[in-house]
Amino acid sequence: MSHVLNALFAPGFFANGPVRAAVVVGAVVALVTGAVGVFTVIRSQAFAGHALGEVGSAGGSLAFLSGTNPLWGYMGIAVVAAGLMEVLGVHRPRARDVATGLVLGAGLGFAALFLYLDTTSSTSTGVTVTILFGSLFTISQPMLPGIVALSAIVLVVIASCYRILLLSSLSPELAAVRGVPVRAVAIAYLVIMAVAVSLAAETIGTILATALLVGPPATALRLTKRPGGAMVVAGLFGVAAVWIGIVLAYDSFYWPPVDHGWPVSFFVVAMVFVFYLGAGVVAAVGRARRNRRVGMFPAMGESGCEPHVDADAA
Amino acid sequence: MFSGFMVNTWIAATMAAAIAGVVGFFVVLRGSAFAAHAIPHGSFGGAAGAVLIGANTILGLGIFAVGGALGIGWLSRRGRHDVATALALVLMLGLGALFLSFSVEYAAAVYSLLFGEVLGVPADELLPMAGLGLTCIVAIAFLYRPLLLTSITPEVAEARGVRPGRIETGFLLVVALASTMTVPVVGVLLMFSLMIGPAATARSFTSSPLRAIGLSVAIALAIVWFGIAIAYLTNYPVGFFVGTLGAVAYGCARIWTAQHRARTAAILTEAPPLAAG
Known about the structure:
The complex is a heterodimer of chains A (314) and B (277). By secondary structure, chain A is mostly helical. Chain A contains 15 helices and no strands. Chain B is mainly α and 277 residues long. Chain B has one domain: Orthogonal Bundle (ABC transporter involved in vitamin B12 uptake, BtuC). Chains A and B meet through helix 3, helix 5, helix 6, helix 11 and helix 13 of A and helix 2, helix 4, helix 5, helix 8 and helix 10 of B.
């Protein structure tokens, strides 16, 4: 038994302080992005989510300049960017794409400026890589309570707005008829997404944050059509991807070709991608089996089913 | 500013801006800004891999850009388009992070690939750039009618036997070619900003496609030339000026069109009989 454990977890895994912090932060953040991301996928806002994460680079590098924690930088800029997208017309279907693209382009411009100032003002050249690609093992312990508290707030907001959010995501017209302030809900959701993606940026970097926001929720929605269930399944997939990523990254210190370990963000992204493809295969097999059972009426097998949730959550 | 190595810079940036202006018009028209962001950005991973094994950077960029374009097309046939784009992008960037961690001298290379290093284009990159750029223009000319048709009236296009899936893949490949040619010189950020800002600005002034393409190229050229000039004088990164100028141009266009509309409305209300007729 201990041989197996030793083969899976390199020596010292459980006694390592940064690793323990990474395990906790990674799990909390994956649960939050899983819950928030289900709505990102349903509302087709993956581009907006990605843009909010990536403009965070500007905030992170500005925070580095002023010596504060990058998380506050990511979040500050992301919330400002969410407001700008709204002003430019992200709520109009035809203008949405351009509004997001313009805010992203301008945000990246500021990131270029601040990262340039970072690299000229300090001797540490790795700041660009750390901000863009993240490093879960360098999360400082004092940040833990802040991250957990922010995550709890996001989860509470999502839970308490669940019904309005779902209705206005699935059918804005029906929601408007029922008296739901659709535009206000959309703005609130952009802000929630900005916070969630900033948390993800803190763990796997600003330009890879999208992987956690979009990947596990899209995977879950391939397996179950019920949004509530999908949020839980997405959270589990996210936690699995982050934890497997941490274990592999820790083990990789003993792998070739270099002696400093492979980046944890790479493993997390790779796991997210594998889960997505795997869920596609599982869903296709399930559809084929149902179609065979239903025989001549394949369409009847399609509606309202949620196959294989348990099999994949394990 | 116009001597020695800077001559190459001006030529390279001018070619990049012209291609970005043309391709960008279709990006904005078709609402494929995410793909236009993902393909050049993801091809960064290919460049990092090429640096690692000592191969030609342009080759690495090209393989990842074309692979990304085909991957987005393949993934979105079985799932949501934006999810497919996001996942293809993060996978390519994740590989980029891996390659970077293996190579020794990366920080400066990362920065110039992401944000561009217009000030210092090697002369032997100009010819391949021109060749790829020409291919892009020819491909766009070839796809011009079906691209417009599938973007504006998808139903008519389908009735005429145009296959939207094939046109979309063809267009993504053009974006891949354009980014292969421009990313090593102008960086991921410049390319993306140059495709969105000028084209969106041009579209708010005119609805005629050819006029909008011309205007978009003109604005892109103005932004790039202006950006390089300020960057040369101030020593700040050129990506900052190009990224923000694109947004500023669009902001000005929005204000101008809003005022224009208000003025027209005012004239119409002052002369009600004419407006009624």
